[in-house]
Amino acid sequence: MEAKAVSNFLMISPRKLRLVADEVRGYLVDDAISILKNMPKKGARLLEKAILSAKANYMNLNPNANESQIYIKKLYVDQGPILKRYRPRARGRAFRRLKRTSKITVVVSE
pLDDT per residue over 18-64, tens digit each? Predict the structure, then answer.
């Protein structure tokens, strides 16, 4: 049995978030949470929240499951919509700034 959690529209670029996701993919949920708690990156907080949500979804579907045996089966980070902003430059010009967003998908299993 599997359970899934998705976090959308996160204000962090997928490239930065994938660095954190690669560190905990395949771990037991409790081990992954302890790793993320000691990581000094913004993406670690966002990923921790998504993993805990997936674990809660799994426990809701399977109330008799052993919490210590749940592991991260799939974890991937996709690109969300890009916010386009403009920054004023010299001589009346404008440079476009792309504020990238992310989408986290976590699948846990026992």
Answer: 999 999 999 999 999 999 999 999 999 999 999 999 999 999 999 99
Q: Is 81 helix (H, G, I), strand (E, B) or coil?
A: coil
Answer positive or negative: Cα dihedral of 19, 22, 23, 25. Answer: positive
For the chain, domains (ranges, CATH) are: 2-109 (3.90.470.10)
CA 92 to chain centre: 39
Report the largest interatomic distance among the alpha carbons of the chain, rounded to a whole angstrom. 67
- 51: tokens are 């993993």
Residue 70 backbone class (left: φ over 0; alpha: ψ -120 to 50; beta: rest): beta
